[in-house]
UniProtKB/TrEMBL annotation:
Gene Ontology MF terms: oxidoreductase activity, acting on paired donors, with oxidation of a pair of donors resulting in the reduction of molecular oxygen to two molecules of water
One GO CC term on file: membrane
Sequence ranges assigned to domain Fatty acid desaturase in this UniProt record: 64-331
Protein name from the UniProt record: Fatty acid desaturase
Pfam family, one: FA_desaturase
GO biological process: lipid metabolic process
Organism in which the protein naturally occurs: Amycolatopsis rifamycinica
Length: 368
């Protein structure tokens, strides 16, 4: 935990908030055709990759064709999940009034129903970012990712659970909105989950039917290879999405908060929590696109409804604002962030794990 209120004076917090509000408004005022052309171009490329991948699997008896098909299909699923689905469903393109880019109508190529995801992610996660016992993305109801989570022998399996979650990530996201841990604690009934379950069954049935029945059958005698190719593409997307998301939320320097210290927070305090509770990942333009620009998780948490293609453009200004107020701006290459997350998962499996969110004394002095 960190002393959120001790970071800045009330006056600094308000000025900090005004600066970020001004930055956001400048981007909103500048949105236009270039943003529309960008997302349409990404969608066109994603569809082209999917068609190419499906077509190449029809020649799956030839190993290079099978590998190329799986590669193309994997990229298509990653783009659909990260740069298109995640960002469109955040409402980043609702201002275009294009039905195909409507956050309320869009459905992505994953077993998680869009309606369920919008509730658990857009509302719960982005409202209560890194507030322990409120933000259910802290551990996904499965992992211990903060020392504020009371240790139990169950958490000795932390590394195993994390590995399984990475492999089956789309299924973990699908089940997330059931809030099973709250059902176990008696804070939610199974009756509350009936509409959630109905959406899950409908969506998962369609996805299973498409990837593991329809397309394999269409390739006739190559059905087993097509089945394996689709499974490999889904696995690739799952591992990639898990890595990007966990590296943006759980490296060692990222901080967590209590309900008490975030009660009745101002806009400036909300911005402050987003910065302290997020981390970026460095990389090139293609890396950022494939991450859905969630490699700029700090900017995304600050402005979740701004088109993600804008995050690299404003990252430098956000960092300068952080430096101006003596605030950390957590960033690093994928290998560093992933290793930091892995160490945290292992350490927090044990009851004596050191707190990864402890504020160093010199930082506390600077903030005083």
């Amino acid at each position: 935990m960190t002393g959120l209120q001790d970071r800045l004076t009330p006056e600094q917090v308000e000025e900090f908030g005004r600066e970020l509000d001004a930055l956001r408004q400048r981007i909103v005022d500048d949105l236009g055709q270039e943003d529309v052309d960008y997302i349409h171009d990404i969608i066109k490329k994603q569809r082209g990759l999917e068609v190419a991948g499906r077509a190449l699997l029809f020649a799956g008896f030839f190993p290079p064709a099978w590998l190329a098909g799986v590669g193309a299909l994997s990229l298509a699923k990653i783009l659909d999940n990260m740069e298109i689905g995640h960002n469109v469903m955040h409402g980043q393109y609702d201002w275009t009034r294009d039905p195909a880019l409507s956050s309320q109508r869009f459905e992505w190529d994953t077993v998680a129903p869009a309606e369920n995801w919008r509730h658990s992610h857009n509302y719960i996660h982005h409202t209560y970012t890194n507030i322990v016992d409120k933000d259910r993305d802290v551990g996904y109801g499965i992992l211990r990712m903060d020392t504020a989570q009371k240790w139990h022998p169950y958490y000795l399996g932390n590394p195993v659970y994390a590995t399984l979650l990475a492999i089956f990530f789309q299924w973990g996201v699908m089940l997330h909105d059931l809030e099973v841990e709250n059902v176990v604690k008696g804070e939610r009934s199974w009756a509350d989950n009936v509409p959630v379950l109905r959406r899950i069954v409908r969506k998962a049935s369609r996805q299973i039917g498409k990837d593991y029945v329809l397309f394999p059958l269409l390739t006739g005698p190559l059905a087993p290879l097509t089945f394996l190719g689709n499974a490999t593409a889904n696995l690739t997307r799952n591992l990639w999405a898990f890595a990007i998301i966990f590296c943006g939320h759980f490296p060692a320097d990222v901080e967590s908060f209590t309900e008490e210290e975030t009660a009745e927070e101002s806009r400036g305090q909300w911005y402050l929590r987003q910065i302290l509770g997020s981390a970026n990942i460095t990389g090139g333009p293609l890396f950022h696109i494939l991450s859905g620009n969630l490699s700029h998780q700090i900017e995304h948490h600050l402005f979740p409804d701004i088109p993600a293609r804008r995050y690299p453009q404003i990252a430098g200004e956000v960092r300068e604002i952080c430096e101006k107020y003596g605030l950390p701006y957590h960033t690093g290459p994928l290998r560093k962030q992933l290793w930091s997350v892995a160490k945290k998962i292992v350490k927090l499996a044990l009851p004596t794990a050191p707190s990864p969110t402890t504020v160093e004394p010199d930082r506390q002095l600077r903030a005083a």
